[in-house]
Hints:
This protein is α+β, with helices and mostly antiparallel strands.
Amino acid sequence: LPRALCSITVCLxxxxxxxxxxxxxxxxxxxxxxPCRYSVLNRNSITSMxxxxxxxxxxxxxQPIIWTDGWRVTEQHSSRYQLRGDLQRGDVSLTIVDxxxxxxxTYCCRVEIRGWFNDQRTNHKVVxxxxxxxxxxxxxxxxxxxxxxxxxxxSSFTVxxxxxxxSASEAPQTAPTPCSGPSDCLDVAADLQNTSVLLAREQLPExxxxxxxxxxxxxxxxxxxxxLLS
Length: 230
């Protein structure tokens, strides 16, 4: 293996075949590609290989998920496991479609090379993480209240309220101006005067009502006496 590749993998030598290991990470819902290649010099170099869900054993693949004879896929455990590379050029990278957290684990890429103990074995550790969810930051409202200067004890406190984000359509609309011309202002003034009169009438004390009733009774008695005398 080249030095650059060995810097990111753990290289082991076992009975004449090379076993390397690297880590591939991705997120849930993505298509994750686990790389694996072998050298193809000519048509006679094209060979069979397999992918398995475990570390590479001494032969074949443990829990095989896909097989190829070098020209085409011959066995496939699930349609979510695909070989999208050019097989005849030695690109046997595994693509996991719509990855799930359960897809995390060790995968073995085994390329069968002619001869005793010449197989190319690569173990890959796949880590599938949950997708990141971006949320809008909430708005924070801060108010302060302090006791008056004449009080015996001065204290202050801060109240912080968090308001959820609202869209432009949900935002409160600005109230219209009271009047846009002289005539509108006159109408508004008249409405305010009528409202003041109604409020004044509603706020009269009850004893004022009693005085009005007594005055009416006295006038009625005087009227009756005047009729009798006439």
